[in-house]
Amino acid sequence: MIDDAQSISIERSAPVAPFDFDLTASFATRGLERHAADVYESEVYSKLLDYGEEPALVRIKSIGTIDAPELEVSVTATGGADIARAHNVAGKLLGVDDDLGPFYSMAEADTVLSPLIREFRGLHIPRTATVFEGLVKSILSQQISSQVARVLRDGLVDAFGATRTIDGTAYTAFPLPEAIAAANVESLRAIKLSERKATYVIEIARAAASGDLDLEALKNVPASEATESLVALRGVGAWTASWLLIQALGQPDGFPHGDLALQRAMGKLAGDGQRMTAAEALEYSRRWSPYRSHATTYLFAAIRQPGGL
User: Fold this and answer.
1) Domain limits at 196?
2) What percent of the chain has pLDDT over 90?
3) Alpha-carbon distance values, 222 to 17, 201, 218, 239, 249 (Å)
4) Are 34 and 172 within one domain?
5) What is the mean pLDDT of residues 273-280?
6) Same structural domain, 145 and 114
7) 182: CB partners within 8 A, 6+ apart
8) Which of 54, 55, 181, 183 could cross-link 50 (Cys pair, CB 3.0–4.6 Å)?
9) What is the pLDDT of residues 217-231, one digit of tens each?
10) 225 — phi, psi (to 5°)?
């Protein structure tokens, strides 16, 4: 396996404490060595970023502690990759600028959240490299199990993402809108997407590739406006929009109350043991506002534990 031509840039950064690198990187990959374009193995989190120039590989490792965190961030560039942009995105992938203090102050007095902030202390919210990535991954996850969603996400990345070989290892980036826009429904059906999901993903990719849909602009508007714009797209409902607020837009108060796993967890922790309805979950969650993105993340950290909620 021949490496692509490359140059390396290394910087150090200090996340906002507390920051548990292992917890956060593991959450990004769902506890696996690889989830879609995210890789976490041998205590190094890696992601190949593709913004339409040449891809750049981001590799992050911890050289600090939970309470005095420090990261070494290396960017390995091929061709004309934008190294400065890759460094800028790198920290956002693991939410290094998140200030957990206000959330923890609220959660300490909450009977549901207080055990979770002790167990998962230092967990920050990982985010996707682009809003397009987050949106497509969320659409693929609609109304199916997490295991099936993983197959679809990995399949999409493998089929349409750019691949580069660095230090003898092949890495694949999440596909650009242009790559999916050039596909047809049959090619997405071949990687196990339903016809409906394939249609939605291609429509969104074509709108993004043409410039008719500016998803990155949603980072600069209030959550209500972003949600309104998202649910206007075919294939996007409240559940998908809520996950985008958390995983891609950096909004602090996203809450996917229609999520069945979340409803089951809340029923066990805050109810009579039975799954809450969407309305009940939403009503109960109001006490956690405006920190429901973090509350959701910590609940899912518990859900994903072996033998979890």
Assistant:
1) 131-218
2) 92
3) 27, 25, 8, 17, 10
4) no
5) 98
6) no
7) none
8) 55
9) 999 999 999 999 999
10) -70, -40
The CATH number that applies at residue 85 is 3.30.310.20
Residues 136 and 187 reside in one and the same domain:
yes
Selecting among 20, 98, 253, 259, the annotated active-site residue is: 259
H or E segment and range at residue 164: strand 163-166
CA–CA dist 260, 300 (Å, integer)? 12
Q: Are residues 115 and 137 in the same domain?
A: no
Compute the distance between CA of residue 118 and CA of residue 200 in angstroms, rounded to an integer.
40
Is the model's pLDDT at 72 over the cut of 50? yes
Cβ within 8 Å of residue 92, ≥6 positions away: 127, 129, 250
Q: How far apart are CA 270 and CA 105, in angstroms?
A: 19
Q: Can you count the helices (H) and strands (E) in the chain? A: 14, 8
Residue 277 has pLDDT above 90, yes or no: yes
Total domains, the chain: 3
Asked if residue 18 is part of any domain, the answer here is yes
Catalytic-residue membership of 272: no
The CATH number assigned to the domain holding 265 equals 1.10.1670.40
Calculate Rg over the CA atoms of the chain: 19
Contact 241, 144 (CB under 8 A): no
Mean of pLDDT values over 285-298: 98
Is 224 part of any domain?
no
